[in-house]
Amino acid sequence: MGAPADDLDLIGRRTAQRTSVVRALIDHGGFVGARALHDELRTQGAPVGLNTVYRTLAALVDAGRADVVRDRGGERLFRHRPFPEHQHYLLCRACGLSAPVDSAAVETWAEHVARTSGFAEVEHTVELTGLCPQCRTT
Amino acid sequence: MGAPADDLDLIGRRTAQRTSVVRALIDHGGFVGARALHDELRTQGAPVGLNTVYRTLAALVDAGRADVVRDRGGERLFRHRPFPEHQHYLLCRACGLSAPVDSAAVETWAEHVARTSGFAEVEHTVELTGLCPQCRTT
DNA sequence: CTAGTAGTGACAATCGTTTCCATCTACGGT
DNA sequence: ACCGTAGATGGAAACGATTGTCACTACTAG
Ligand SMILES: [Mn+2]
Ligand SMILES: [Mn+2]
Ligand SMILES: [Zn+2]
Ligand SMILES: [Zn+2]
Fold it and tell me: Which residues in chain B are contacts of A110 at CB distance < 8 A?
């Protein structure tokens, strides 16, 4: 379990709101949008301003404690990352379930491309989406 | 050179506006946003409604004649794709210059993950960004 | 040529996200 | 424990990209 304490120390003052946001993100267990997290906090009786949700999530991303992906509609989805290691995910387009994937091969490939391209400060975005076992009915 | 004719046949009626948009996209030579393309068309004396620019680009993407990436701000950037083969790019965060990259290794990796994951209809997004030789001046 | 349908574009609406700013509060001195 | 203040909060307004609406236009099949 990633203790909220660890995360909170990295992002500034320890406020009730930030504590709530971090805990809600961890509890959620997968990728969530800021809006959805804001709703969950409100229904859980720990209302936090949407603005603060955005700021806390941004701070977590800066601190390397959260990963971000863009869903089909362009919305940013956040997921808590307990370990400092860079991660990629395979996530379900229907239910949002996410599974970390072993991306060693891609990292190697990306580094190779970076070295032989002439470009500097090369970064990569790698996202896999699909339909999880539960969701592939029809 | 991809002749606009080929592309226009795939997306419906042959109108002056679509012809302009397709030609402007090809002429641009790299990734462009709808807004920027709209501006270029206006300054070139071939004004087209922004809405039509969006619709034409969407049609090209549907027809597999254009690739899309999201820039940092979430804006969608489009690039004409003369060949039907799936492509990935390395693009400059400063000037927008893009270079196709050999992604065979990633395709293999993605297929492997898909087969062993239990997920169905797995799709992938792979984008590399960096600073091109011209732009890495600090 | 004409009918009929697909396309156009000005405008408004949406959606996610950011900025503003007046107010509040955590917390390192004292 | 008590301040003072930099940092944090949140409601409202601003923003930028994209999509919906709908009256009008113009391809194109016949
Ligand atoms: Mn990676
Ligand atoms: Mn690919
Ligand atoms: Zn699912
Ligand atoms: Zn460049």
Answer: 128
- H-helix or E-strand spanning residue B113: helix B104-117
Please name the nucleotide lying closest to A14, CA to C1': C26
Strands B66-70 and B76-80: antiparallel
What type of residue sits at position A18?
Answer: R
Domain B1-85: top CATH class: mainly alpha
Which CATH number applies to A87-138?
A: 3.30.1490.190
Task: Report the pLDDT averaged over residues B60-74.
Answer: 95
pLDDT at A121 over 80: yes
CA of A5 to nearest chain B CA: how many angstroms apart?
30
User: A37-46, A57-66, B4-13, B75-84: which has the minimum mean pLDDT?
Assistant: B4-13
Residue scoring higher pLDDT (B128 or A96)? B128
Q: Quote the pTM value.
A: 0.93
Q: Give bridge partners of residue B92 from the DSSP assignment.
A: B130
Say how far apart CA B37 and CA A64 lie, in whole Å.
36
pLDDT of res. A84: 86
Q: Tell me how far CA of residue A23 lies from CA of A2, A39, A52, A55, in angstroms.
A: 9, 14, 14, 15
Q: Where are the domains of chain B?
A: 1-85, 87-138
Give the closest residue to A79 by CA, choosing from A61, A63, A93.
Answer: A61
Yes or no: say if B35 and B41 are a contact pair by the CB < 8 Å rule: no
- Which residues are placed with Cβ below 5 angstroms of ligand 4, an ion? B 92, 94-95, 97, 132, 135
Cα–Cα distance between A118 and B113 in angstroms, integer?
Answer: 30
Give CA–CA dist B58/B67, Å, rounded. 10
pLDDT value at position A1?
55
